[in-house]
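Person: I keep going back and forth on a fold encoding question. Show me how you would write down a chain together with its backbone fold. Please set it down just below, with no commentary around it:
Helper:
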Amino acid sequence: MKKELIYELITGLLVLLFLYTGLSKLLDFKNFEISMLFQHLPAWLTIPMTYALPLLEIAVAALMIPDKSRLTGIYAFLIMMTAFTLYVGAALLHLFPRAPCACGGMLKSLGWGQHFILNLLFIVFAVISIRYYRTKRKLTIKQKPYGA
């Protein structure tokens, strides 16, 4: 019981992070749009990403809430967070002439090193959650009687 509560809290943190960042970007869309224009993305990708990213973050957060779609949501979270962490790592290594942060809310104020550590922490949380929920699902399937 205590173990399950810990995993629920970890998943709750993943949900809160993506809800917060997605909603922050939408609430301050003009600044988010400007910072996205300065990203190191092909021009054809910048505009679609500007509109899709906040909505995708909110959708992934919503996927992690119900039990049936939670694992799918956590995998999506892990993929998106890993991609962003690679970008942050590239910024830390000065692979770009300039690297603006398009994060939402107070996360904008973090430095690249702080971003990198925070992202790694959330990646670890996602991996831990995936392992737990996959194990939980296997146990649930094994416990069901035949023909149920």
In short: The two ends are 25 Å apart (CA to CA). Helices lie at 2-27, 29-37, 43-63, 67-92, 112-143. The chain has a mean pLDDT of 89. The chain is about 75% helix and 0% strand.
